[in-house]
Amino acid sequence: MTRRVIGLDSMYGEVRLGLIGRLEGLGGGPRVAAMPDFFVDHFVYFGGDASRFMGEFRGVVSRGGGDMPHTLQEIHKGGNAANMSYAVSRLGGRAVLLARTSGLGLALLRYFFRGLDVDLSRVRGDGRLAVSTQLELRGGGGVVNVMIGDWGSVSDFGPELLTDEDYKVMMGCSHVCVVNWSENLRGTELAEAVFSRLEGGGVRRFFDPGDPSTKPEEVKALFRRVLSRGLVDHLSLNENEARWIAGEAGIPLREGLEGLKPGLRGLWEAVGGGIVDLHTSDYSATVVDGEVYLYPTFTVEPLRATGAGDTWNAASIWGGHMGLTPLERLIFANAAAGLYISRREAEPPSLEEVKNALSSLRPRRLGDLSRLGKR
After folding, report:
1. Which residue in 228, 229, 217, 148 sits closest to 187, CA to CA?
2. Which of 37, 55, 76, 217 has the fewest CB atoms within 10 Å around its CB?
3. What is the tally of structural domains in the chain?
4. H-helix or E-strand containing 90?
5. Is 45 contained in some domain?
6. pLDDT 10s per residue in the chain (375 long)?
7. Containing domain of residue 101, as a range?
8. Is residue 58 part of a domain?
9. CATH (domain of 14)
10. 145: closest CA among 6, 368, 307, 326?
11. Cα–Cα distance for residue pair 48/294, rounded to 1 Å
12. Residues 303, 257: Cα–Cα separation, whole Å
């Protein structure tokens, strides 16, 4: 069979108008269970680049300590599972969060998620709060973030924390998502146990590992025990994650479009089919039934560097569940993520906001994809 990349030669206006028309008749969405992480994100917006920050920082240290005044700071919900749950609900779907935090964390969750269709009854409050301080700087033509994290109870969320009632709730969902494998020291064990138990149950099993470089020695076990066994129905990766997973599978992701096509298809085959997504700042791609679809992201002014992937994943799940074509799903997810990173508040968009934006957003020019090289 002749394979092809679909989407590069499509006229944006035609596809966009068709998508807008399809969205007009849609509402509601999937019921998604997500685990295992909730963080309190403490954002520090410096407003300058790294050189300026280091200069001011050294100046404070040299005078024996002191203040760096007038630095904007905010507290937000964080964690991939929590962010995805929030974003799914904003689009009109329903979510169930399974996590472990402290009593304070549970109170903050209830505050952050007030008014949304997110079930927090499966969150345990007998653990330790996870906190991430995120310093955002200007650099490289955009925003760069440096994260200083305390993983709290996220770091040891194992399958023994899940009850029969938890699995009963999961079986009532359309999707079960295990994310942030990278910050859970028992992430492979959790994904293997959850996805094995759900096998054959009609629930779509979604996995996004997070940054594998935090525990490179575990990538082999993840691939052997979870990915190569076909336990994942929907795998979502960014560029760095794709390089790590493809490398473990022995699949080369060479530079340029002609290297990307066979690499993504090979990765799709290595993980047993299903759906494989790749989302980057320049474009997103998906492999469905062996076909590679690709679409550029939208030209926006980024105001934040964190959370775009969670919004993208939520929108991708929503679009797939609602019957969008693979290319429409990419456009929809790109639009949702673009709106998220370009708005002043760290708030994912509603379905109505995505619908309205699709008429004015413009895709960036797609280059040679040379950034996706070897690890």
Report:
1. 217
2. 217
3. 1
4. helix 80-90
5. no
6. 445 555 444 445 677 778 988 898 888 899 999 999 999 999 898 988 888 999 999 999 999 999 998 899 989 899 999 999 999 999 999 999 999 999 999 999 999 999 999 999 999 999 999 999 989 888 777 778 788 989 999 999 999 999 999 999 999 999 999 999 999 999 999 999 999 999 999 999 999 999 999 999 999 999 999 999 999 999 999 999 999 999 999 998 876 666 788 999 999 999 999 999 999 988 999 999 999 999 999 999 888 767 899 999 999 999 999 999 999 999 999 999 999 999 988 899 999 999 999 988 988 876 544 444 333
7. 5-38+77-357
8. no
9. 3.40.1190.20
10. 307
11. 34
12. 29
Whether residue 25 lies inside any domain: the answer is yes
Could you tell me if residue 211 is inside a domain?
yes
Question: Alpha-carbon torsion 187, 192, 198, 200, what sign?
Answer: positive
HSE-CB of 107 using CA atoms within 13 angstroms: 4
How far out from the chain centre does Cα 299 lie?
A: 19
Residue 153 in tokens: 């109870």
